[in-house]
Design goal:
heterodimer; A: 191 residues; alpha/beta; Rossmann fold; 2 domains; four-stranded parallel beta sheet; 6 helices; globular; disordered C terminus; B: 367 residues; alpha+beta; Cytochrome-c3 Hydrogenase, chain B; three-stranded antiparallel beta sheet
């Protein structure tokens, strides 16, 4: 992104450059928003609905979203399912392999907060937002495929508001450290 | 012996059907050893059950085998009923049989479809998923959920069949065998699929028994063992059905056994719907069951034939309102253990086919 950042900063500094920049932003965001390729991080039950959403009945292709299992090809990571402490490093690694700009959808209660596995278990990460910057949360256990499609449409609105300029871009929290077993969250949640 | 190469597959890989990591040792392209590393979806369900009341555990069992949630519900409820000495109304037993046979179809559609997709036959996956969606629609009408049903409860089922459901179900089971025959022609008659699966991952009957394999994996090898017939439970003695068997025990036979099981399931559902008509609606739950079950001290084990094989639940009670210990005997776990045995000697691409033919679900493997 460094090259794009420099380009945007130089463009903004010349008179009238901001107008050109917003026009470029509008085109780029339109293109990005309409081909959000998904990295299906399906680990558990929600993965079934993720598959169902991309198949012929719900037909995700019409929104320009297709699942690609390769992080290098994708724009949005859909975390569908429970993330355990053993799985979290792999999720983080795949997230880091995705090229910028990238977004994250937390699908289902497990990815939001641990869901049904919030209490009394020792192995589940309580929400993927403990270590990934999540853009859209979808509630449900599991959510319906339509809910996932709605999430992508909501994400499209967010993508439209994005800009090339570092000054106008949304603040992204970098990748947070992985939760460790000894951080106290294993004792029945944080009431 | 050429250069030894170690390849890591997973834990996030589209061909591992979940979150399995496989460390494969290769000699050229030939697999010399394959070790599945499990536990990436270990959620501690058995431990959580020790802090839940007997009724609160039912939603947890949904999340075990998430491709076939009804099975874990039923196996758990049977264990509770045995522990507490609950008698279930016959209408509820019929409904359980019906939903579980429909669940077998839904689960096998996923199994056949993903096994087909592993060999490149993606169209078959789409066709199979269409049938799965029809079953899921039936379940949604029944209990409001597409995947995690929480339908079978200790003492019965949570709701009676809604209006018009029986007719919808009959329409489905009428059309389903034809869809299966279409898939049979399209997939099992396909030259590429036959070449990719015949003779790949051959499991002989003695090994299948020795390794504790069950379900379509064992029956694909010709082990004539089906709990529905050999340890009959619920209403199964009243139905006429056959148990499809394979001959050679390769990936092809395992997938094909699943296909014919779906047709047999349709027969069972049809008979169950006919016999169900004699029972008056509404009697679906044991009368006078306390909200807080507290069975006396003791233990109980019960098992059912799930889509993956012999699914057992063992409960120990110390007299309290929560079980002292719950243990799930998972068929997917036992079947997955066969992977090193079956994949050794084949190429890396065949390893994926073998894994697909075992049809593991990692919610159940890792629990």
């Amino acid at each position: 992104m460094a090259g794009v950042d420099d380009f945007a900063q130089v463009l903004e500094s010349v008179p009238g450059g901001g107008i050109i920049l917003t026009s470029v932003d509008a085109v780029a965001d339109w293109a990005r928003g309409h081909s959000l390729w998904m990295m299906p991080m399906g680990t558990a039950c929600c993965a079934m609905e993720l598959i169902a959403a991309s198949f012929s009945r719900f037909d995700f292709d019409r929104h320009g979203s297709i699942p690609r299992p390769d992080p290098r090809h994708t724009d949005v990571m859909v975390v569908a399912g429970t993330i355990t402490r053993k799985m979290a490093p792999a999720v983080k690694l795949l997230w880091e392999q995705m090229p910028d700009p990238k977004w994250c959808i937390a699908m289902g209660n497990c990815a939001i907060s641990g869901g049904i596995f919030y209490y009394d278990t020792y192995s589940v990460v309580r929400g993927v937002d403990e270590f990934l910057p999540v853009d859209v949360y979808i509630a449900g256990c599991p959510p319906r495929p339509e809910a996932l499609q709605d999430a992508v449409l909501r994400l499209r609105e967010k993508v439209r508001a994005d800009s090339m300029s570092p000054g106008r871009r949304r603040a992204i929290e970098g990748v947070l450290p992985l939760p460790t077993a000894g951080d106290g969250t294993a004792e029945g949640g944080s009431e | 012996m050429s250069e030894r190469l170690v390849v890591n597959i997973g834990p996030s890989h589209p061909s591992t059907h979940g979150v399995c990591r496989i460390v494969v040792e290769l000699d050229g392209e030939i697999v010399t050893h394959a070790e599945p590393i499990i536990g990436h979806l270990h959620r501690g369900i058995e431990k959580m059950a020790e802090n839940r009341t007997y009724l609160q555990i039912v939603p947890l069992t949904d999340r075990l085998d998430y491709v076939g949630s009804m099975y874990a519900n039923w196996a758990y409820c049977r264990a509770v009923e045995r522990l507490a000495g609950i008698r279930v109304p016959e209408r509820a037993e019929y409904i359980r049989v019906i939903v579980c046979e429909l669940q077998r179809i839904a689960s096998h559609m996923m199994g056949i479809g993903s096994a087909a997709a592993d060999t490149g036959a993606f169209t078959v996956f789409m066709y199979a998923f269409e049938q799965r969606e029809l079953v899921v629609d039936l379940f949604e009408a029944l209990c409001g959920s597409r995947l995690t049903y929480n339908y079978v409860r200790p003492g019965g089922v949570s709701a009676d069949l809604p209006d018009g459901w029986v007719d919808r179900c009959r329409t489905f089971i009428k059309g389903h065998p034809d869809a299966m025959r279409e898939i049979d022609r399209m997939l099992f008659g396909n030259v590429i699929f036959r070449a990719r699966t015949k003779g790949i991952g051959v499991l002989d009957a003695a090994d299948a028994v020795a390794w504790g394999a069950s379900g379509p994996v064992a029956r694909g090898s010709g082990v004539d063992y089906d709990l529905r017939r050999d340890d009959p439970y619920s209403m199964y003695p009243r139905f006429d059905f056959t148990v499809p068997l394979g001959e050679r025990g390769d990936s092809y036979d395992r997938a094909r056994v699943r296909l014919w099981e779906c047709v047999e399931s349709c027969r069972i559902v049809e008979q169950a719907l006919d016999q169900l008509a004699e029972y008056e609606p509404g009697v679906i739950m044991t009368e006078g069951l306390p909200r807080l079950l507290a069975p006396g001290r003791g233990d109980a084990y019960d098992h059912i034939e799930s889509a993956r094989g012999c699914l057992g639940v063992y409960l120990v009670s110390d007299g309290g309102v929560c079980p002292y210990r719950m243990k799930v005997r998972s068929p997917a776990f036992s079947n997955l253990a066969l992977l090193p045995l079956l994949a050794t000697g084949h190429t890396l691409s065949d390893l994926i086919v073998v894994l697909g033919s075992l049809d593991p679900v990692f919610g159940e493997v890792d629990r």
